[in-house]
Write a structure and sequence with these properties.
- The complex is a heterodimer.
- By secondary structure, chain A is α/β, with parallel strands linked by helices.
- Chain A folds into three domains: about 5-80 and about 155-220, P-loop containing nucleotide triphosphate hydrolases (Rossmann fold); about 90-150, no CATH class; about 225-280, Alpha-Beta Plaits (2-Layer Sandwich).
- Chain A is about 35% helix and about 25% strand.
- Chain A has ten helices and 14 strands.
- Chain A has a six-stranded mixed β-sheet, with helices on both faces. A four-stranded antiparallel β-sheet of chain A has the order 2-1-4-5.
- A two-stranded antiparallel sheet of chain B has the order 1-2.
- In chain B, a hairpin with a 2-residue loop joins β1 and β2.
- In chain B, about 50% of the residues are buried.
- The chains are: A alpha/beta, B mainly alpha.
């Protein structure tokens, strides 16, 4: 089956800075792919390339069979976009925000489309209120509903829950999960490990403009972090010695806030992992930090 | 998908209408009050004390018809400059619109058309207020909204192009001081340009506002053949600035 999104050797530079560096990416239809990477990895630039708001310096981009940037408008007609930053019209009513985008997306029956979007966002009773009067969570739900006003088969989510409190984040995850189970193809950029683990069928780890690993979360964990991680707390000298001992045994060690995490500790020989270590199942966070060298959020 | 799709342009304009509904009262209030104050100050003040007649017209008739141009530039160039800058930099509205099947050309065209329509209406207010001060209605005045519309299109495009070119909102001060104020002063609104040095008169012929002032005066007191040229200048001004605005906005909005 043809990929919903296909990128081949895509490059995007801003002067001396290479934001996207020979990116190859396939998103098969019907899955949620999490593009996981630290800030500055090139995720948002990739999203802008897909919406035609940035033009690649090299490479090929195809979205739902449409070649970009030439056929970008036709591609955008079939995709929904939920931006990282809230760009709703705050003085205008909830309903009018949706109506405007129904027109922009050439929706034929605007009334039913607006009703459907309001149901999705659970904002039927707030339809006549100005956006300014909504809570942060309601505004996020409205943004999502606005991106889905034309019932697109493909949805781009750019850091959908960045800056939100945990309760609102969970609320949005439930909504996104519902879309995924309805068969909407989702490409979601995020730098939250938990978000990727919770929502994505597959995760692509991106750093410095490239995908450096890709797979199902469990596969990635098994491949790069093994089964078990041992976390060790203590004074800096103790941690330094423990680190040297573990690395001497060929184990991977990463910083974990005030602690160190010895990854793949199930393979440790005698004395390589001190008894004080707290053993836990290896996680996507271990993979992320090992591969990108960045602390996870 | 087709170029300059009316559905895309209509969609963007519907957004403007939805927003305008939230602040139309304040805009309309100032659009009516401003010419009234000017007419009281200049028309009745200067007209009653220092100036009797200008170019064969009473000073109220002269200023009242001239002030249409002032209303047009202030309701087109300034909203275009500030509105475009705010929507792009602060509200990120254009990111949302361009993620839909809309391109920069449609975006700029819709913004221009909306500002043109608005200024076409608000441009008539000084004329209506002047009637309360003694200006006689004339059939030719029915064409004034059209003259205002085309002039406003050009100045809206100018404002959009400026907003797409500046790095900070403070830089608008240079534009208002160096471009908009001189254009508005050397348009023949408050005094005839025939009294100015010849070189300035020649430059004034390049000022679209001057052509608008002349067209509005002639709509009230009788058209002349050269008015067709004046109208053509306004249309050409709008078309050229439209292309400039599309180019500048494309450079700004598309990385």
């Amino acid at each position: 089956m043809e990929a919903a999104i296909q990128l081949r050797g895509v490059e995007k530079r801003f002067g001396e800075i290479v934001a996207v560096d020979g990116l190859d990416l396939d998103v098969p239809p019907g899955i949620c792919l999490g593009l996981l990477g630290p800030n500055g990895a090139g995720k948002s630039t990739t999203m802008r390339l897909l919406t035609g708001q940035a033009i690649a310096d090299a490479g090929e981009l195809t979205v739902l069979g449409h070649q970009l940037p030439g056929d970008s408008k036709a591609a955008r007609a079939k995709m929904g976009v939920v931006p990282q930053l809230d760009n709703l019209d705050v003085d205008v009513t909830v309903e009018d925000n949706l109506r405007v985008f129904a027109r922009l997306y050439r929706v034929k029956d605007i009334g039913p489309a607006v009703d459907r979007a309001l149901d999705l966002a659970r904002l039927q009773d707030r339809r006549k209120d100005a956006v300014d009067e909504l809570s942060g969570g309601m505004r996020r739900r409205l943004l999502l509903a606005r991106g889905l006003i034309h019932q697109p088969p493909l949805l781009l989510l750019d850091e959908p829950t960045v800056g939100l409190d945990p309760q609102i984040r969970t609320e949005l995850w439930t909504l996104i999960d519902g879309l995924r189970s309805e068969g909407v193809t989702i490409l979601m950029s995020t730098h939250y490990i938990e978000e990727a683990q919770r929502l994505a069928d597959e995760v692509a780890v991106m750093t410095k403009g490239k995908i450096i690993a890709r797979g199902r979360p469990n596969e990635l964990i098994a491949e790069h972090a093994g089964r078990e991680t041992a976390e060790l707390y203590g004074p800096p000298e103790f941690l330094r010695d423990a680190r040297l001992r573990a690395e001497g045994e060929g184990l991977k060690v990463r910083p974990a806030g005030p602690a160190i995490a010895i990854v793949g500790s199930e393979n440790a020989g005698n004395g390589a992992v001190p008894d004080e270590a707290i053993r836990r199942a290896a996680s996507l966070e271990d993979v992320f930090v090992l591969l990108t060298g960045e602390e996870a959020e | 998908m087709r170029r300059l799709d009316p559905a895309a342009i209509g969609g963007i304009m519907s957004r403007e209408v939805a927003n305008f509904r939230t602040f139309w009262k304040a805009t309309t209030f100032s659009s009516v009050l401003e010419p009234t104050v000017y007419l009281l100050a200049f028309g009745l003040g200067l007209g009653a004390t220092l100036i009797d007649r200008v170019d064969g017209l009473s000073y109220v008739e002269f200023v009242g018809t001239g002030m249409v141009a002032t209303a047009v530039i202030f309701s087109s160039a300034l909203p275009a400059m500030f509105g475009t800058f705010v929507k792009h930099r602060f509200q990120r509205t254009y990111d949302a619109i361009l993620a839909a099947p809309v391109d920069v050309e449609e975006l700029v065209t819709a913004e221009m058309l909306w500002i043109g329509l608005r200024a076409g209406v608000y441009g008539c207010f000084p004329l209506l207020v002047s009637m309360l001060f003694g200006l006689d209605p004339a059939f030719g005045m029915l064409l004034v909204p059209i003259f205002c519309f085309f002039t406003a299109l050009g100045f809206a495009a100018f404002g959009i192009a400026v907003a797409a070119s500046v790095a900070k909102i403070d830089q608008f001060n240079y534009v208002t001081t160096l471009v908009i104020t001189p254009l508005f002063l050397v348009a023949g609104t408050f005094f005839p340009i025939s009294g100015l040095p010849e070189a300035v008169q020649a430059v004034a012929q390049l000022n679209p506002l001057h052509h608008l002032v002349e067209l509005v005066r002639h709509s009230a007191f009788g058209f002349v053949a050269t008015d067709l040229i004046r109208f053509a200048v306004l249309v050409a001004f709008a078309v050229v600035l439209w292309r400039v605005a599309v180019r500048r906005m494309s450079a700004r909005l598309i990385d």
